[in-house]
Amino acid sequence: MTRIPVVEKILGANDRLAEENRARLDTAGVYAINLMASPGAGKTSLIEQTVRQLSGQLRLGVIDGDIATSLDAERAERAGALSVQINTGGDCHLDAVMVHSALSELPLSDIDLLIVENVGNLICPANFQLGTHKSVLIASVPEGDDKPYKYPGIYRGVDALVINKIDLLPYVTYDLAYFQRGVEILNPGLKIFPISCRTGEGIDIWLSWIKEMVTTFQRA
Amino acid sequence: MHELSVTQSLLELAQDHARGGQITDLYIVVGQLSSFIDDSVQFYWNVISEGTLAEGSTLHFNRKTAVMECRECQHQYQFNAEQFACPNCGSVQIQLISGDEFYLEAIEVVPMEQIPS
């Protein structure tokens, strides 16, 4: 019997493919965001708002990950984005392989900003790198203020946080300070955008941030 | 439910290192905050390893508890989802020291030349 030391990440193959995706995006000059959230938090609504309001300023592409149906990709397309649907057939997250094949279906030279809408889930997407430049999480008010404490993994790994449905704050029990305290511990200094996709509140600040990110990237 | 694809990655990784030998044991380190379930990986492993050089092998999971360290007073303590702040000084300036590991530490193999034909 021989013991062979390995000491390698089990998801190393995914990470390596994610790096390839990133290189491909960089070469094509496409800035990509991995958008994660629980089901119903407002991923598709935020994408619709973003696509509509940035049309004429940035060319948008959307990769839509879902267990089944192409409803979300259709919504993104109606809003004016070039879109590709990935049906994971039961898998709870997107991985680098799925994004790799979706990239081949998009005319990357016609896209400035690519939003990858992950499968609605707060656990698994956090473990799989896709090759995107930034990861953004949406937390919506009705989900409750304890989510950072219950799903620390996803809060630790993101670059920005959108708090959606803030128009519901007067109607639900939600301690924003308690929520933000959990976030601050897990991810100090995290960029936070309180918004309402329904009323449009806060969306302009989110859009300026996105535009700034894309401009900085394209200048580099 | 992504343990199936994870188990496939595990098999590929082990085979890459086995130099053609028969894999008998795999030592896996799993942090408390990594969202992988031992039992599910074990279940898929039995199915996936069938007919490979890892058939019949045993998975050993070394569970690492999540440990936080306070940046203010350097106190180290076990992660507790109810109370993130430092139990010593109450600071929220804390960082994770361990707990998100998920890697294959080592494998044990019967070298190729010793496998009974």
Uncertain segments of chain B are none
User: What oligomeric arrangement do these chains adopt?
Assistant: heterodimer
Helix/strand structural class of chain A: alpha/beta
The major β-sheet of chain A equals: 7 strands, parallel
The description of the largest β-sheet of chain B is: 3 strands, mixed
Query: Order of SSEs of chain B, N→C?
Result: HEHEEEEE
Structural class of chain B: alpha+beta
Helix content of chain B: 10-25%
Bin the strand percentage of chain A: 15-25%
Total number of beta strands of chain A: 8
Number of helices of chain A: 8
Please write the string of helix (H) and strand (E) elements of chain A.
EHEHEHEHEEHHEHEH
Mean pLDDT, all residues of chain A: 94
Strand order of the largest sheet of chain B: 2-1-6
Shape by Cα distribution of chain A: globular
Distance between the termini of chain A: 53 Å
Mean pLDDT of chain B: 89
Low-confidence stretches of chain A: none
Q: C-alpha Rg of chain B, in Å?
A: 19 Å
The largest sheet of chain A has its strands arranged as: 4-3-5-2-6-7-8
Protein model, in words:
The complex is a heterodimer of chains A (about 220) and B (about 120). With about 220 residues, chain A is α/β, with parallel strands linked by helices. Chain A has helices at about 10-30, 45-55, 70-80, 95-105, 145-150, 150-155, 175-185, 205-220, and strands spanning about 1-10, 30-35, 60-65, 80-85, 115, 135-140, 160-165, 190-195. Chain A is about 40% helix and about 20% strand. In chain A, strands 4-3-5-2-6-7-8 form a seven-stranded parallel sheet, sandwiched between helices. The mean pLDDT of chain A is about 95. Chain B contains two helices and six strands; from the N terminus they run H-E-H-E-E-E-E-E. Chain B has a three-stranded mixed sheet with strand order 2-1-6, with helices on one face. The longest helix of chain B has 15 residues, at about 5-15. Chain B is elongated. Classes of the chains: A alpha/beta (about 220), B alpha+beta (about 120). At the A-B interface, strand 1, helix 1, helix 6 and helix 7 of A face helix 1 and strand 6 of B.
